[in-house]
Design brief:
With about 475 residues, the protein is α/β, with parallel strands linked by helices. It has two domains: about 120 residues, DNAb Helicase, Chain A (Orthogonal Bundle); about 260 residues, Rossmann fold, CATH 3.40.50.300. Helices cover about 50% and strands about 15% of the residues. It is built from 18 helices and eleven strands. The protein has a nine-stranded mixed beta sheet with strand order 5-4-6-7-3-8-9-10-11, with helices on both faces. Strands 1-2 form a two-stranded antiparallel ribbon. A hairpin with a 2-residue loop joins strand 1 and strand 2. Helix 7 runs antiparallel to helix 8 and helix 12 crosses helix 13. It is elongated, with a radius of gyration of 30 Å.
């Protein structure tokens, strides 16, 4: 294990590692020379190089020698207060704070000051210091994980998820966002201006293609969870995949779909024919599409083949697996949206959730919301409603969500999908009943029952059942 007493000099800290049948003490990765080099450059030219270190997110904890971290912290303080940095006053300040002896005395401070005669290699040495810190972080995280593994944790899946989360966090912390050239942003600014000129509100997140929904939500924003809930056969999978299609194909945003109910092959089939606007009812022996229909199918297949869309059809997938796979896909393909079909078919493998379906749903819901925040992307989650709408004979309510408490709490946006024609009695006779069925045919509403960052209300849609597509419905004229 690493020594708890920080070194006051260049003595390497040791890490005990297993090697065959014996434990061997090995020094942690470090680069004392580059540490002294970048400190030297910052002391000689503070305006130039302390500023660069700040931009590169260099922290005192990145230094292997703790006293080097303390010296950097002191330099940062003086830099932020716009106070002069020179050897004599710096020596006195460290002495007044009883920090000079930990560094090695005035002689060691002078050695560091003169260590680098030129700052030409500052950025290279800075990169070495940060790289060694990353390696030490990995060793520390893995050592802690090994220790906990020997303790035989009860919830192995949760333990595995925590291990992966730690490693993922190390990678995220090591990345630095640099500055952007103004010219690269002009096109985006002009686009926003044009949206205002056309009386369109610029979105803060990913467009769903449904104008009213985009207006109310300002787009699906990073870190948010959007729950689409409905009774079975209401079309919630079609609505979700219509949004996924728009995001992955029309906006070229990498998207990951977890399908617990349908196979990947079924989803691709539905996507293809829906995109081509070809009715799946035509899929029968002796199929003979027209030349135009065949061309539409070929065009849609090319678009789908080129789309950055990924489907995982693992049935009853545990929330821990979803998090692990999503993290890897974020790392490998930089996904910008996740869609899950559907929540009640997922599982939590924690011991606490055993025997309590409500607790299990709560853990899954909280896990998905945490994943959205961790990856900083929106997540669409489908959910089932209970039988409340049938019993009332009317539109669904947020309280109709199964195990609704945790879902209502975790979701940023909740849409309840409703089609009145689903409840119309097809056997009712009479002109009035027939007129009502005709009036309701294809009509759908997405009732926005919760919107953490905007208004609630109804999104009017039209459901094209044969094409498995939801389209924006034009407002009905008022008498």
């Amino acid at each position: 294990m690493p020594s708890n007493s920080p070194p006051n000099n260049d003595t390497p800290r040791l890490q005990v590692v297993e090697a065959g049948d014996q434990d061997v003490a090995r020094p942690l990765p470090h680069a004392i020379g580059p540490e002294k080099s970048i400190l030297s450059s910052m002391m000689q030219e503070p305006t130039e190089y302390i500023g660069t270190a700040v931009e590169e997110h260099l922290a005192p904890s990145h230094f292997y020698i703790p006293s080097h971290g303390t010296l950097y912290e002191t330099l940062l303080e003086l830099y932020e207060k716009d106070q002069p940095i020179e050897l004599v006053s710096l020596t006195q300040l460290l002495k007044d704070r009883n920090l000079l002896e930990n560094l090695g005395g005035p002689g060691e401070l002078t050695t560091i000051y003169t260590y680098s005669p030129t700052a030409a290699h500052f950025e290279h040495h800075l990169g070495i210091v940060k790289a060694k810190h990353i390696l030490r972080s990995v060793i520390s995280s893995c050592t802690d994980s090994i220790s906990k593994a020997y303790d035989d944790p009860e919830d192995v899946q949760a333990f595995l998820d925590a291990v992966e989360s730690k490693v993922f966090a190390i990678k995220e912390d090591s990345e630095v966002q640099g500055e952007t050239k103004v010219g690269d942003l002009i096109e985006g600014v002009i686009e926003v201006l044009q949206q205002f000129m056309h009386n369109e509100r610029p979105l803060e997140g990913v467009s769903t293609k449904y104008t009213k929904l985009d207006e109310m939500s300002k787009g699906l924003k990073p870190g948010e969870m959007f729950i689409i809930a409905a009774r079975p056969s209401m079309g919630k999978t079609s609505l979700m995949m219509n949004i996924v299609e728009h995001v992955a194909i029309d906006q070229d945003i990498p998207t990951l779909v977890f399908s617990c109910e349908m196979s990947a092959q079924q989803i691709v089939q539905r996507l293809l024919f829906s995109r081509a606007r070809y009715s799946m009812a035509n899929l029968r022996p002796g199929l003979q599409p027209t030349k135009e229909e065949l061309q539409n199918i070929l065009d849609a297949s090319k678009q789908l083949k080129a789309a950055p869309l990924y489907i995982d059809d693992t049935p009853a997938i545990p929330i821990g697996d979803v998090r692990a796979k999503a993290r890897r896909k974020k790392r490998d393909s930089d996904i910008g949206l996740i869609a899950v079909d559907y929540l009640q078919l997922m599982r939590s493998q924690s011991r606490q959730a055993e025997g309590s379906r409500e607790r299990e749903i709560a853990e899954i819901s909280a896990g998905l919301k945490a994943l959205a925040k961790e990856l900083n992307i929106p997540i669409i989650v489908l959910a089932q409603l209970n039988r409340g709408p049938e019993q009332r004979g009317g539109a669904p309510r947020m309280s109709d969500l199964r195990e609704s408490g945790s879902l209502e709490q975790d979701a940023d946006l909740i849409g309840l999908l409703y089609r009145q024609e689903y409840y119309d009695n097809p056997t009712s006779e009479g002109d009035e009943a027939e007129l009502e069925r005709d009036a309701n045919e294809g009509k759908a509403e997405l009732i926005i029952a919760k919107n953490r960052n905007g208004p609630t209300g109804n999104v009017e849609l039209t459901f094209l059942k044969q094409l498995m597509r939801f389209e924006t419905r034009a407002p009905e004229p008022h008498n």
